[in-house]
Amino acid sequence: xxxxxxxxxxxxxxxxxxxxxxxxxxxxxxxxxxxxxxxxxxxxxxxxxxxxxxxxxxxxxxxxxxxxxxxxxxxxxxxxxxxxxxxxxxxxxxxxxxxxxxxxxxxxxxxxxxxxxxxxxxxxxxxxxxxxxxxxxxxxxxxxxxxxxxxxxxxxxxxxxxxxxxxxxxxxxxxxxxxxxxxxxxxxxxxxxxxxxxxxxxxxxxxxxxxxxxxxxxxxxxxxxxxxxxxxxxxxxxxxxxxxxxxxxxxxxxxxxxxxxxxxxxxxxxxxxxxxxxxxxxxxxxxxxxxxxxxxxxxxxxxxxxxxxxxxxxxxxxxxxxxxxxxxxxxxxxxxxxxxxxxxxxxxxxxxxxxxxxxxxxxxxxxxxxxxxxxxxxxxxxxxxxxxxxxxxxxxxxxxxxxxxxxxxxxxxxxxxxxxxxxxxxxxxxxxxxxxxxxxxxxxxxxxxxxxxxxxxxxxxxxxxxxxxxxxxxxxxxxxxxxxxxxxxxxxxxxxxxxxxxxxxxxxxxxxxxxxxxxxxxxxxxxxxxxxxxxxxxxxxxxxxxxxxxxxxxxxxxxxxxxxxxxxxxxxxxxxxxxxxxxxxxxxxxxxxxxxxxxxxxxxxxxxxxxxxxxxxxxxxxxxxxxxxxxxxxxxxxxxxxxxxxxxxxxxxxxxxxxxxxxxxxxxxxxxxxxxxxxxxxxxxxxxxxxxxxxxxxxxxxxxxxxxxxxxxxxxxxxxxxxxxxxxxxxxxxxxxxxxxxxxxxxxxxxxxxxxxxxxxxxxxxxxxxxxxxxxxxxxxxxxxxxxxxxxxxxxxxxxxxxxxxxxxxxxxxxxxxxxxxxxxxxxxxxxxxxxxxxxxxxxxxxxxxxxxxxxxxxxxxxxxxxxxxxxxxxxxxxxxxxxxxxxxxxxxxxxxxxxxxxxxxxxxxxxxxxxxxxxxxxxxxxxxxxxxxxxxxxxxxxxxxxxxxxxxxxxxxxxxxxx
Length: 964
What we know:
The protein is of the alpha+beta class. The strands form 10 sheets. A 7-stranded mixed sheet has the order 20-4-3-21-22-26-25, with helices on both faces. Helix 6 links the parallel strand 3 (152-154) and strand 4. The radius of gyration is 30 Å and the shape is globular.
């Protein structure tokens, strides 16, 4: 099968793409990701880059136009400059920083010229392929793409990044997902705005301005969402505002409450006590410097049983430790320790209560912390919801910890007052829709009575569209209105329910005030939603979103498509289980608008493509389900994929499994690769794309991947040959080292290196119809992965030859003893083998030797103000550890300052980075997670450290090291 190679199959400006993708994760207002929460959503910069590079031909595909390697390189660089380029910007104060420009830049895509330039390249390639002259004007380019480019399709659309970016590039976007929450998000993101493009608002207030200004794109729709959202908040306040009273201050004034801080309680099992035990993980309220606040308690023994009262302290002092942790709880009244089993049993018997611990209010100069009052507590307890979601939480403690404490229904995740607020606002979504419908009729929209789900675009459909976004705002509110929300004492704000991909048990929870101006207020949720709608500028391109099992054929499958997708990562994220939290309220608000999508009581789970051991009864059954399903998906995509374009598949799963011979592989990776090859795809290229947020809660304390590995696939030739294991090994030994070196030079995070190395190895494996063992049996994907990992270990071990003798000794010693002391004799034996001495190693500053014991120095034992001297013995080990010490204590600036003083040759400095790769690999294999994270951090920060060090080096300093 012949085809023209696309840019993504040859080269990418990877550093710039990854830099912008990492930055994008911190962009908030107006970004598509803020329309509605979704887990593991891909950055739009990544999706945009992958799609564009999959559509644009590599210059080598046109030798008649670019006949020489130099001409091809020059043209490729031109394309890189369109896609992503790193430049240095200088602000008004003269401070310089690196920024990304081009198509991947979130800032630049707001410029129509940038999008038009990218679309012009797509149209040019289409025209060249058809033997026609490329269009030139922006309108002609858009029309040409609409006529001749294939639709783009993502069968696991999730949060919608991929179809949204396909639409932005001018392609008709198709998106499907089995999950109704994902389907609704995609409809709100790409399908609904084009239906009502350039339509002025229908509400009376904004309608008055129509003569004075025009409404472009989805601005009119956004204005209506704001208007009816504001009306909802006012109506809700009139109905339930008495449940959210202000708090009285000591001076007779009143303040608006931002949050009520609660602790859960159970009865102390000590018969002589019987106190309602407060269960809290902490007593501090604010840890901000100069604004510290915490809770102290007092035991009122005049009552029977004794009662715990809380007071708020703001002067100097230190709060006590919390009363509950993973080991158990302690009663403040009697001091008895209580096992968690007792707490769980009390919860299961519905005997777990709550007590108000503190109140956070809005003062004149910021947050103020106040003690609880009986009045405030009683008002909260007086709330009586008229409806509540009695659907069951999934009984899987891996992701749903509250279940083991008796919180088995979704209603249990909310206080009574929160349920009243949620049901009130949910009812108001419908009422707002009815008001919008009447206003739409009044301004002349069609009274065709065709609903939105049947393709309508008249008054009824428009009012239903408004309701969709109002329901999204309610879902955003629900994320902050549950009793799983906690108080962030470092930022003085509420942390939402989904701080990570799970619903955890929270002992001390924060209840937001929907009527305030603080975090979690309803107007704020509306504001987030409308900023996304206002930014929607793809209104000239149609989109089609449908609920669909990716394994099953669809009526649109007869149209070839360009496919880019981000399938579930084996068992990493239980999307359906988590989505029930939001679906409960979406179904309540939108069930009549999308009766087909909201037809099930909960999110469908039986056919969800996740290897859930709990759901399927066992690990083997879960593996079989996921594997067979993924094979069906890839067989479908093979038939559906437009063969002029590569299939691109994102995958981000760490290899963590070892067999009894310590060979590393991964069931998740094995499954996806097996599925691709059984569907007759070969892997033509892989790219490590930085798609995961490094500061997310899970990533901060684990070796979670920072990157997705993008697999670029083409149909394998029907006559692909077979080969032997010996030939396979010969080829990967030839190709893999250079590929790994290129990855390291591109500064791939050590945590991602093993995953990225799969690509070059499996590219060799997948080009053959079979790789045969000596007995004629087929070499399995798992065995191939194990061989690739062995070669990775060998490659990193071979790099030890670059290290100095002190460092090679330290590596061997560290591998055996880490930072623990060991006999002097063993250290001396090892030093003789390395032709060095223990005294020399002490001089090098990497160990201490005394009392017959030798121990590597820990980083925290190094002097904080250490500066190398010209005569110093500087092992690579010492340099690496000192750089990490500075990075952890003083950040990238501190590490850069030290690096600038080293003045080593560039190759010597790079060796320090290679050492970090080797140490990460060693620690990862040993399971030393916290140590591994340190080395990963150094490599991830390396580009910025080296850039800043160059700035330091350019500044004249006294006593510069190694002056010539």
